[in-house]
């Protein structure tokens, strides 16, 4: 909503900027992730998709989802049976000890455990995207079968079914997944901009990165530093809020169990 309000303000200044309705913007919350080869032939790419193409894509996502389920189950089983001991001394202090005394701040077993946890996170988020695409495919199937078409090509004249059909096609066939291949990133920028968790990337960019960069446009060096600071600051604030909410929920559940004597 904040991004939509921001773009409304921009359109009030520049009449060339056109924005969709608020409801329409909800179906386009990752515009940078759309990968239509030639945007001049947008409608052609949409109309090109047929039921057979959808079946192939759904089979592809289903196979990937099954494989990821199996991998997650294996990782989960290993982690349950091989719990890593958490050192009492914090990681930062252990790194300082290593620099001062040469004593290793971790061991191979703990490092492997951390790698598995990261890999587990990557696969879990990637699996969500596969499941989403399978659900989208189920919704798209009847729309493709009925060959929903409109005589007019104007956006304003398209029916809800046509808009929904186009959005589903774009999401399934022309949208980058939520999680890319972070382990093949070419650098920090590629990792955070393209490969890592992309759900809130656009929001952080619109509300943190771009405003700060535009504000310091006369001092590009300072702007390049502070825009990234703003981006990750929003990221940190969000996770602090989420963690606070989660802790409150857990605390309330614990208090409820204690009050009722539930073990």
UniProtKB/TrEMBL annotation:
<feature type="transmembrane region" description="Helical">
    <location>
        <begin position="108"/>
        <end position="131"/>
    </location>
</feature>
<feature type="domain" description="Wax synthase">
    <location>
        <begin position="176"/>
        <end position="242"/>
    </location>
</feature>
<keyword id="KW-1133">Transmembrane helix</keyword>
<feature type="transmembrane region" description="Helical">
    <location>
        <begin position="167"/>
        <end position="184"/>
    </location>
</feature>
<protein>
    <submittedName>
        <fullName>4463_t:CDS:1</fullName>
    </submittedName>
</protein>
<dbReference type="Pfam" id="PF13813">
    <property type="entry name" value="MBOAT_2"/>
</dbReference>
<dbReference type="GO" id="GO:0016020">
    <property type="term" value="C:membrane"/>
</dbReference>
<feature type="transmembrane region" description="Helical">
    <location>
        <begin position="225"/>
        <end position="242"/>
    </location>
</feature>
<keyword id="KW-0472">Membrane</keyword>
<dbReference type="InterPro" id="IPR032805">
    <property type="entry name" value="Wax_synthase_dom"/>
</dbReference>
<keyword id="KW-0812">Transmembrane</keyword>
């Amino acid at each position: 909503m904040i991004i939509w309000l921001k773009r409304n303000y921009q359109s009030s200044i520049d009449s060339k900027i056109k924005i969709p309705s608020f409801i329409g913007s909800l179906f386009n919350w990752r515009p940078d992730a759309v990968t239509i080869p030639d945007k001049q032939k947008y409608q052609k790419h949409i109309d090109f998709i047929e039921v057979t193409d959808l079946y192939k894509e759904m089979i592809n996502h289903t196979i990937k989802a099954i494989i990821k389920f199996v991998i997650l189950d294996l990782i989960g089983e290993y982690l349950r049976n091989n719990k890593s001991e958490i050192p009492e001394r914090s990681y930062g202090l252990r790194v300082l000890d290593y620099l001062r005394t040469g004593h290793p701040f971790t061991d191979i077993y703990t490092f492997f455990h951390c790698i598995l946890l990261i890999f587990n996170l990557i696969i879990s988020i990637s699996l969500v995207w596969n499941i989403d695409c399978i659900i989208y495919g189920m919704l798209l199937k009847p729309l493709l079968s009925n060959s929903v078409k409109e005589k007019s090509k104007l956006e304003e004249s398209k029916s809800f079914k046509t808009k929904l059909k186009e959005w589903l096609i774009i999401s399934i066939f022309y949208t980058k997944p939520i999680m890319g291949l972070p382990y093949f990133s070419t650098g920090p920028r590629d990792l955070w901009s393209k490969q890592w968790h992309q759900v809130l990337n656009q929001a952080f960019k619109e509300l943190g990165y771009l405003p700060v960069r535009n504000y310091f446009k006369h001092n590009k060096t300072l702007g390049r530093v502070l825009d990234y600071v703003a981006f990750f600051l929003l990221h940190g604030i969000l996770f602090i809020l989420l963690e606070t909410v989660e802790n409150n929920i857990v605390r309330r559940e614990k208090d409820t169990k204690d009050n009722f004597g539930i073990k």
